[in-house]
Every structure is written in structure tokens, then in C-alpha cells.
Design goal:
The complex is a heterodimer of chains A (542) and B (78). With 542 residues, chain A is an all-alpha fold. Chain A is 69% helix and 1% strand. Chain A is built from 22 helices and two strands. Chain A has helices at 7-26, 39-42, 51-62, 65-78, 85-110, 115-123, 126-158, 167-188, 191-218, 222-235, 255-269, 273-280, 286-306, 308-314, 329-337, 340-378, 384-408, 414-425, 429-437, 443-463, 488-509, 528-531, and strands spanning 476-478, 485-487. Chain A has a two-stranded antiparallel ribbon with strand order 1-2. In chain A, β1 and β2 (485-487) form a beta hairpin. The longest helix of chain A is centred in the middle third of the chain and has 39 residues, at 340-378. Chain A starts with 6 loop residues before the first helix and ends in an 11-residue tail after the last helix. Chain B is mainly α and 78 residues long. In chain B, 62% of the residues lie in helices and 0% in strands. Chain B has two helices and no strands. Classes of the chains: A mainly alpha (542), B mainly alpha (78). Chain A binds chain B through residues 80, 83, 86-87, 89-91, 93-94, 97-98, 221-227, 248-250, 255, 258-259, 262-263, 285-286, 289-290, 292-294, 296-297, 299-300, 303-304, 307, 522, 525-527, 530, and chain B through 1-2, 4, 19-21, 23-24, 26-28, 30-31, 34-36, 39, 41-44, 46-47, 50-51, 53-55, 57-62, 64-65, 68, 78.
């Protein structure tokens, strides 16, 4: 949108980028263990993180550039429905309070690096484990792409991209950022994002606190005016569609989508491989549970960030004035209300906020590939050294894939990419979470439910059109045989669970072989000091 | 070790369960907060009520953590 580059903003972003890149490479030496070429070291940071590091790591991991860009953009463009991110990040905490300690314990007892490792060990099924691993990798790719969209939005407003003529000059800064990210992830593994997360979270808190105090005082009428102006803008019918964009409260048809988006996203969050990496990297069973109340601070921040979307409306921005891209709402708002140097700090926060999760996601996807595809299907006897090497290389591939993804697809639909990932990943919930509590469900039943959920969910998501997109136009769709819309992932999950129940009933009746469970009930309650953290105990039963 | 003994339902466990369930009820019962008034400092009820529940959930999670810990201590477990 800008034709000239804002020098001050650019140099501040470059300063912070160089700083975190240096940290990223230096991180290889932080808490270094004797044998670095081991997946527990490269991929899980030595499984040694205590409460303090975990708070920064999980916060940096879960509250991504998506937080800064897409959530306020959703409020900016559609009103109250976009605020589902707040109930979502409220209920995610009690949800994981219940089941994550069990996953932590069983993973430490058996040296599981990925959730798919657990699924294979619990259900004795390589095919189910493969299904979980592939789903994890496929769902993570658009999530990494989403981080790039966050960086792109900032570069656009600074004036760096968008104005270039060829695709290369236009996207060169993005290439450089990603090449550096790929290099330090390769060399330092999970330690890099863990260390960078300190800077990221500090910057993010600083910017958010300043923004929510400073902007409402600058806008005449304060919060009251911000909401009044938003209500007026959102309820004004669009001249083309003759429908209002939304409202600052939920209309009746939006109630079910709001609830199902919140619940479905919360259930999906810790099915993502990168979220589980953050958990498995902790030192003790209680680390995450003890941390949950402190992690809620991030949810509060997210709620305040969301309201930046309304502030952008009150400041007079419209989708049209942003060149048709609501994702630019927050960067453009910063550019308008902050002095250049502080807007630069804001963009640095978003850019680094994208690097941390992108690094963790690529590590998580690489671990999945190595453990559940390479070792299980290609080279069962590969050494820890070889596994780490494979993971490092795959982390590069995954990032390259995300780059292609974001450069080839419509960049304004960032949130829909991620929500499609949510549709897929939520279908692994039964295999993982049901599995943590019971072996009642047969592995083939879980696989059948997964397949039905994935197919129905993907086809339904594909078929949603909007005025701007023919496919993936919406994350909500009608529940079959009803007139109510709901989050596609959630409807697919219910379908998945029904299929699991029915197929399970049939398989039990015909006494299908259930597979060997290598875990015991005590494994799910184990503490770190009971068994010691074993790098890689006995190889899992084939 | 992780030996567990004692009754399945204890006051501490019920308390922890309430702490865990309350945020679900509060956030998913949308009709209870889908309105403009009462406003707080110009912010509609819909927004400040949900932001308030972020803080309440943090407090409830601390309570649940200590209730579970107390319960396990009494069982001579962890």
C-alpha cells in the first residue's frame, strides 16, 4: 500500500531481527548436553525446561503472529464472531489441565517424542500412528504459512513488499527472514525458539500494554466511542451485498458457530504437534499444570489485541482503504497512531512472534516425520544420530513447503488456512485423548472415525464459498439435516466419534485382534524422578 | 510411587472438578452474556465479561492445582 519505505520502522525491525538471529545461533550452546545429536536434545531441548522457560516457550509457541494479525482482522471485518478466540483460549486451559499430565507421564516412561509415538505404543497400530503423524504434518503446514502472512503484513505497511515489480523483489525480505530462521532452527533445534521466546514475549507485552492504554486515550471518546463507531460501521449494509458485515454482539445464527469455534479450537490446540512439543519438553509432570494460571495472562493479552480491530475501525480504516486486505488492520493502525520508532517495535514483535512458532512447528513436524514415518516405515534401525539428522533436514523442507504455500495462495485467507488445519487435527483427538484414558476403542474403529472425519470435514470446508472465495470461504457450515451452522471441525469430530462407537461395536462383536498395548496404568501417573528420564528406552513393539 | 488409595469422590476432588468445569459453563452459555449493557468504562458487557473470565479461569486453575495436590498428599501419593 505504501510506495516509499519507512526507514525508521525498517531499521528497528532489522535491529531486532539481527538480535534474535544471533540468539538463535547462540542457543545451540545453551544448556547443552554431551550428546547433542539426539532427538531428545535437538527436538525437545533435552526435556529439561522448568516452569519459567515453559511459560515463555508455550506462550511464544501458542500465541503467534496469528494473534496479532488475524484475530483483530476478524473483529475488524466481521465483528463479535471473531472474538471467539477469547472463550477458546479460556477453555483450553481447564481442558489441558485434565489430560496433559497423563500424556506427559506416559511419554516420559516410554521415551515418546511425538503424540503419534504414543498412539503406536498404546494401540499397537502403526497405521493409526501414521494417520496421526500425517495429519499433524499436513495441519502444521498452513499454520507455518500463517506465520509468514503475519510477517508479510508488516513488510507491506513498512513499504517493503507489495510495491515491487517481480515476485522475487517483492518477496525477497520474506525469503531472507525464512532462510535465517531455517538456519538457526537447523543448528540449535528447540533451544533456539525457547531462547528467542523471551524477547518475543517481552516485546509483545510491551506493545500490547502501550497500545491498549495509549490508543483509547488518543481516540476521542475512548472505549465508548471505539465500540459505538464499530457498531455503526459493522451494521451498515454493504453496498454490494446489501447485508451488514456483523455487529458487536452475536446475532442469533452466530451463537452456535461462536460456541463450536471456541470449543473445537480449544480441543484442537493441544492436538497440534508444536503444542505437544512445548509440553513434552518440560522437566516434570506438574510443570504445565502449575503454569496454567500464569499462561492465562496470554489469553488476557489476546483479548486486548483482538480489540485493536475495533480501534482500527474507530480510526477510520475500512477494508477498502486497506487495499481489500483486512489483515493489514493492526499494522496500519500502528503506523497511523504510533511514532515510527514504536511502530517499528510493534512490527518487530509481530515478526519475531512469527519466527518462534514457525521454528517450533517445523521442529514438531520434522519429529513426526522422523519418528513415525522414517523409523517406523523406512529405516527401523536408524541410530539416534541419524534420526536427528533426518529431523534437521525435514525441518528445512517443511519451511520451504510453507513458503511455497503462502506465495502461491491467496494471502488474505490466512485464518481460513489455519482453521482448515483445525478441521484435520481435531480428528486425531479420539486416538490421542480417548487413548489416554481407555483402551475400550479398537484401533481400526479409531482409524475409521479419523478417515470419516477428515473426508467429511475437508469436503465440507472445500465447498464453502464466500463473496471473495469459491472454496474454503468459511470455517462454519450447516450441520447435516439441520438449519444451524457450526464450526466444520466440531461437526466432523462428532461424526468421527459416532463412527468410532459404531465400528467399535462391530469389531468387538467379531473379536478383531486389538493390538498390543505396551503401556500400563501406572505409566500415566508417573513422575520424572520415579523412572528417570531415559533418552530412548526399549524400542517400541513392532 | 503412584499408589492411590481412598475414596474416589472426596471434597477436594469435587472442588477441583467444579474449578475445571466452571469456565466451560461460563463461556459456552452464550445467551448469558451476549448483550451490550451493563457497560464497564464504555466496554459492552459481551467483552468485559469474557475478559473477566480469563482472569477468573486463572484463579480457578490455581485453586484446582492446589486441591489436586492436597488430595494426592492425603493419599500418600505424589
Amino acid at each position: 500500500m505504501n510506495t516509499h519505505v519507512n526507514q525508521t520502522e525498517l531499521w528497528i525491525v532489522i535491529f531486532f531481527f539481527v538480535l534474535v538471529s544471533g540468539l538463535g545461533f547462540a542457543a545451540a550452546r545453551w544448556r547443552r548436553a554431551s550428546d547433542f545429536m539426539h532427538l531428545d536434545q535437538w527436538g525437545l531441548g533435552g526435556r529439561s525446561f522448568g516452569g519459567f522457560v515453559t511459560w515463555f516457550l508455550l506462550g511464544g509457541d501458542l500465541y503467534t503472529a496469528y494473534t496479532f494479525i488475524a484475530v483483530p482482522a476478524a473483529l475488524f471485518a466481521g465483528g463479535a464472531l471473531g472474538f471467539f478466540a477469547v472463550p477458546y483460549t479460556i477453555i483450553v486451559w481447564p481442558l489441558i489441565f485434565v489430560f496433559l499430565p497423563r500424556l506427559w507421564s506416559v511419554s516420559h516412561r516410554h521415551g515418546y517424542v511425538t503424540p503419534a509415538d504414543f498412539v503406536r505404543g498404546r494401540h499397537g497400530s502403526k497405521s493409526l500412528s501414521l494417520a496421526v503423524a500425517v495429519t499433524g504434518i499436513v495441519a502444521t503446514m498452513p499454520y507455518i504459512a500463517l506465520q509468514l502472512v503475519g510477517i508479510q503484513a508488516c513488510l507491506d505497511v513498512i513499504g517493503l513488499s507489495g510495491s515491487g515489480s517481480g515476485w522475487l523483489s517483492k518477496d525477497l525480505p520474506l525469503f531472507i527472514a525464512f532462510a535465517v530462521l531455517a538456519a538457526f532452527t537447523y543448528s540449535s533445534g528447540l533451544r533456539a525458539p525457547a531462547l528467542i521466546a523471551f524477547i518475543k514475549d517481552t516485546l509483545v507485552y510491551l506493545v500490547v500494554i502501550v497500545a491498549v492504554i495509549y490508543i483509547p486515550t488518543k481516540i476521542a471518546g475512548g472505549w465508548g466511542h471505539i465500540f459505538d463507531a464499530s457498531q455503526k460501521k459493522l451494521t451498515t449494509p454493504n453496498p454490494v451485498t446489501h447485508k451488514p458485515a456483523g455487529s458487536i454482539t452475536l446475532s442469533h445464527p452466530n451463537v452456535m458457530p461462536y460456541a463450536s469455534l471456541a470449543l473445537g479450537s480449544a480441543m484442537a490446540l493441544f492436538m497440534y504437534p508444536h503444542a505437544q512439543v512445548g509440553v513434552l519438553a518440560t522437566r516434570a509432570r506438574g510443570t504445565v499444570r502449575r503454569n496454567i494460571s500464569a499462561l492465562a495472562a496470554y489469553s488476557l493479552m489476546l483479548g486486548l489485541i483482538a480489540l485493536l480491530g475495533y480501534m482500527a475501525i474507530a480510526e477510520g480504516f475500512t477494508t477498502k482503504s486497506l487495499g481489500g486486505n483486512p489483515q493489514l488492520a493492526v499494522p496500519a493502525l500502528f503506523n497511523k497512531v504510533f511514532p515510527s520508532w514504536f511502530a517499528g517495535v510493534g512490527y518487530a514483535a509481530i515478526t519475531i512472534g512469527a519466527l518462534v512458532p514457525a521454528a517450533i512447528m517445523s521442529i514438531a513436524a520434522a519429529n513426526l516425520f522422523t519418528r513415525n514415518i522414517w523409523v517406523d516405515f523406512i529405516r527401523p534401525d536408524s541410530s539416534p544420530h541419524e534420526q536427528t539428522r533426518v529431523s534437521q533436514l525435514v525441518s528445512l523442507l517443511v519451511k520451504a513447503g510453507a513458503l511455497v504455500f503462502v506465495l502461491s495462495l491467496d494471502r488474505t485467507s490466512a485464518i481460513n488456512f489455519q482453521l482448515l488445519g483445525g478441521v484435520l487435527i481435531l480428528q486425531t483427538f479420539p486416538a490421542i485423548v480417548f487413548g489416554l484414558y481407555t483402551r475400550y476403542f479398537h484401533r481400526w474403529a479409531l482409524l475409521a472415525g479419523w478417515a470419516v472425519g477428515i473426508v467429511w470435514g475437508s469436503v465440507t470446508a472445500w465447498n464453502q464459498s464466500s463473496p471473495t472465495q469459491h472454496h474454503f470461504g468459511s470455517q462454519v457450515a450447516y450441520i447435516p439435516f439441520t438449519g444451524t451452522k457450526a464450526y466444520i471441525a466440531m461437526t466432523a469430530f462428532v461424526l468421527n466419534a459416532i463412527v468410532v462407537l459404531l465400528v467399535n461395536f462391530v469389531l468387538k462383536a467379531v473379536k478383531a485382534p486389538a493390538g498390543i498395548d505396551e503401556t500400563s496404568p501406572a505409566d500415566y501417573l508417573a513422575e520424572a524422578d520415579e523412572s528417570g528420564v531415559q533418552p530412548l528406552p526399549e524400542p517400541a513393539a513392532p | 510411587m503412584s499408589e492411590r488409595s481412598g475414596p474416589v469422590v472426596t471434597p477436594a476432588r469435587v472442588g477441583a472438578a467444579v474449578c475445571v468445569i466452571a469456565p466451560f459453563v461460563a463461556t459456552l452459555w452464550i445467551s448469558s452474556y451476549n448483550k451490550i449493557s451493563p457497560k464497564l468504562g464504555g466496554m459492552p458487557f459481551f467483552y468485559w465479561w469474557q475478559l473477566l473470565w480469563v482472569i477468573l479461569t486463572g484463579v480457578l486453575m490455581v485453586a484446582a492445582y492446589f486441591l489436586v495436590k492436597y488430595d494426592q498428599g492425603k493419599r500418600g501419593g505424589e
